Amino acid sequence: MFTIETARPINDTISLKAFYEQEIRYIKRFHDTNKFLYAYYEFDMKELDHLLFVRGAKPANIPVPDIIGLDPLFTTCCDNFWGEFMAFERLEGWLHEEIKCLDNQTYTSGGIGLSFKEGFAADLKWTGDSINLVELAYGIWLTGQLNDGNAGIAEIVNWFEVHFKTKLGRPYRRWQSIAKRKRVAVTKYTDEIKKAILRRLDEENGR
To answer: How many domains does the chain have?
Structure first.
């Protein structure tokens, strides 16, 4: 954040937004470069922990770069990667929030002031069960509703956390909670949404 703060353009909203978007692309390239390890992290997998997080161990068939300067008697081959993944998730959330603030600023076009804040909803906070928001996030992700289907579940969950001011935890771990439900109630919250919408339509149509 310090590097971004000191290098960003000053007094130029368009250039500043482009600068933030470039930083987000850098983060995505890092994730793409380490795609297997990032997927292992994102889905909170455990199967290779004995190779990735035990001192002196290293997987034979997975490219894991050597990190120069780290103490091999203390570190494992992937703990530094996990620290970077966690930091980049937080940084990406911060960048998206900065871009949102820029988009909400007041612009003037042809002498007419246009405020993008006008008409925006009041500050909202999620007060329902957090697992319901996770279920909604997975529904949006699995049906590809954001960024032409290119938004990852971690990005969506992070966006929800920032904008609804709540903590949802690791996406895959929360998904396991949903998967353990009884079959008839596995989509409990989205089923409630459907029933509520149908009930409202019935009331409006006098049924």
So the answer is: 2
